[in-house]
Amino acid sequence: MAKDGTGYKPEHFINRELSWLEFNQRVLDEALNSSTPLLERVKFFCITSTNLDEFFEVRVAGVKQQIESNVVSRTVDGLTATETFRAITKRVHKLVEQQYDCWNEELVPALERNRIRFLKMADLKAAELEWIQRFYRTEVLPVLTPLGIDSAHPFPQLLNKSLNIVLELEAKQGKRTQKRLAVVQVPRLLPRLVKLPRADGKQDHVFLGQIIKHHLPELFPGGRILGAWMFRVTRNSELYIDEEEIANLLKAVENELHNRRKGDAVRLEVERGCPNSLISALLRRLRLTEDDLHLINGPLNPAGLLQLCQGDHSPELRDAPFVAPVAAQLRGKPDIFAAIRERDILLHHPYESFSSVVEFLEKAAADPKVLAIKQTLYRSGGDTRIVGALMNAVRNGKQVTAVVELRARFDEANNIQWARQLEEAGVHVVYGLVGYKIHAKVSLVVRRDADGIRRYVHLATGNYNASTAKLYTDLGMFTCKPSFGEDATNLFNLLTGICQYQGSQKLLIAPFELHERTLKLIARETSHARQGLPARIIAKVNSLVDEKIIAALYEASQAGVKIDLIVRGICCLRPGVPGVSENITVRSILDRFLEHHRIFYFENAARPEVFLSSADWMPRNFFRRIEVAFPVEDGVLRDRIINEVLAIALSDTVKARHLQADGSYHIQPPPTKTATKRSQFEFIANAAESKCATGRASGRFPKVKLAPGPFAGKRR
């Protein structure tokens, strides 16, 4: 096989940005799916837009910077920055057109059939119009600022992702009548949809922007409004901080957050029907081109539509309610420390309650035997119980350290707020290592037990955030094994002190060894396959981008290793290529919950090893973040991950979309109707069953066996 500097030809890789757009297509597919409950479809429609916002703020902004910097190079898939941008533009236009066809042709009519309507000002009856006018004058008008544009009034610095109205009007200047432009920003603090008071159970809404447009003559007295159209600007939102040159990271992040709102424009969205002359004026003033223009046939900034899903109305239009039970291993055991001493404990969220993790910290804070607590916080989400437990621990005389990552993208403001509150309460707050984001999920409790000092550790694939733990699928593990406790202690010492990485017994830590160890684990499976020994790899990640990992998987495939990858989002590996990746399958599962856990399974010649991790297989996770992968050594828990978590995910025939060699994704229909499986529903059913089962606490889990690999049955 002809190979180049990366190990394989460009056609063996999928472009990172285009792969992400295919992921967002899969999100939109859930909005298009008529079997999805209607309000859940609305959520997926909104998520498609918020995903695109972040994509433009970060990824497209980066590509445009490469173009402007005259960077002449090709990515591993063979595209230059300009070629990548053109491909992105073409794909996004197609995606957005399909998205708004979904809104106009499917969602709006379906919502109307279910008594949820969007009315135009012309549709309102006299009493409704009077109510709207009162609302406008009392709630809206006081916070509006009309901004004229002329030689004395330059084009305003519009905030990132703010919704605005551009209008053309005629105004008299002396004896002459001139055409003028003006801008009105739609207030962010007001609801995007204004719900009319109704007593008949109908839910009638009017868009706030439409209300403001209707009352524009009051904002511009003496002028004649010729037309008004909504528009929205997306800006580069990456933070640029040189940690080597700053004395105060917290202050530097705060300053950059202010700059984020006024970064360079990267996208202009305009309501369809806006005259070309106005569009050209907007593009010129924002220093954008027609490639950056997106004409929208519907509501701009659909995130505001999520308020339709608020409240307890219309349960028939939503997913059935689900309340996660407490994990069977902890059920009926008030002393969580005693339970952990008995054996390691595995938690599968959101199917098992995250409350056990919160209670672990709360009990540690109140327990007089606990001496110290050390905690990483990446996206805390303002969880008052977790942060409150840390502050309460200080009040109870314990030594408490919180490693807070200030640069968790788009959560920076929240983390700054909580970091300050923790510091004021007496928690020792640190921000980790210069040059690295702290993405590891680790909690360490030091306790004086009857037989001596013992360290209790919680390790996880997801954040310490009770809100997202109800929506994201993640795994966590409690252990008090001395080797894990020592590794966790050394990790925190590395993050808080000035010392060199000394290695670890159990944990695989990035950026120091996770990448190298992962390559060695893949290489071991390759070697076993060549020797005729059992060899198989299963990896569940959010993204697969790293070139060396992909090349190693290709080598393993060619050696005969059966490889099953479950990759929710970006996947640059191209499966099913003859002579390269014929033994590799890739599937992406999108459903009610966001698939988020990272699981690595290696057959290891019939002595399987399983690792859980905070890290995806991406260069940033391997080299620019502090990440942790940890082995699951308890045989019962390991079998549960293999025979329950992985096997059920691999058996999904409803929500699993399979990546094809050409980069497209397709759902593979089951061979028979009885073989239909929806993995997340299986997990929900298992959780409901566990409420009644007594055997699971002792380690009896449903057996859903993995399909045999090419060397099944062969043992040393």
Write out key terms for the chains shown.
ten-stranded mixed beta sheet, Methane Monooxygenase Hydroxylase, Chain G, domain 1, eight-stranded mixed beta sheet, 716 residues, 18 helices, disordered C terminus, Endonuclease, Chain A, globular, alpha/beta, 27 strands
In short:
The chain has 716 residues and is of the alpha/beta class. It contains 18 helices and 27 strands.
Give the strand tally: 27
CATH uppermost class of the largest domain: Alpha Beta
Overall spatial form: globular
Largest sheet: 10 strands, mixed
CATH topology of the largest domain: Endonuclease, Chain A
Q: What is the CATH superfamily classification of the largest domain?
A: Endonuclease Chain A
* CATH architecture field of the largest domain: 2-Layer Sandwich
Helix content: 25-40%
Q: Give the class from helix and strand content and strand pairing.
A: alpha/beta
| Integer-rounded radius of gyration | 28 Å
Mean pLDDT: 89
Number of domains: 4
Q: If you had to describe this structure to a student in words, what would you say it looks like?
A:
Residues 1-5, 239-247, 256-261, 694-704 and 709-716 have low confidence and may be disordered. This protein is α/β, with parallel strands linked by helices. The chain has 4 domains: 1-114, Polyphosphate kinase N-terminal domain (Methane Monooxygenase Hydroxylase, Chain G, domain 1, Up-down Bundle), CATH 1.20.58.310; 122-240 and 268-309, 2-Layer Sandwich (polyphosphate kinase like), CATH 3.30.1840.10; 328-506, Endonuclease Chain A (Endonuclease, Chain A, 2-Layer Sandwich), CATH 3.30.870; 509-698, Endonuclease Chain A (Endonuclease, Chain A, 2-Layer Sandwich), CATH 3.30.870.10. Helix 12 links the parallel strand 12 (399-404) and strand 13 (428-430). Helix content is 36%, strand content 22%. Strands 14, 18, 19, 20, 21, 23, 24, 25, 26 and 27 form a 10-stranded mixed sheet that branches. Strands 10, 11, 12, 13, 15, 16, 17 and 22 form an 8-stranded mixed sheet that branches. Strands 2-4-3-7-8-9 form a 6-stranded mixed sheet, with helices on both faces.
